[in-house]
Amino acid sequence: MSQAKASGVIFIKEHHMANPAVQAVVDEANQDVTVMQGATTVINGISGLIQSALDAALANGATAEQLAPVAAVVTTLQTTRTDLANAIANVPVVPPVAPPVAGPTSPRAAKK
Prior knowledge:
The chain has helices spanning 20-31, 35-59, 64-89, 107-111; strands spanning 3-6, 9-12.
């Protein structure tokens, strides 16, 4: 999946994927306007897809013990989402810098 960066926001370029569920996550992330929204959408989407697969596997006879390594991935993704949100929330807001004032750049230029 290729990415392009514009104005500090990462957009995932659309590729048609074999799995429509994954494509739906990509499409939803492309609608987000901030890095946090996009990251949360992707993390939640992937986490949800894995959880759905776990539920289906359990319904078809797999045991929780067999699926524990995959379930750990879901937990890790959820922790990552929370850590990311906390990190972004704790980034200090830097006030914008005023643009330079137009005018002569040197005393010599002012005399002309």
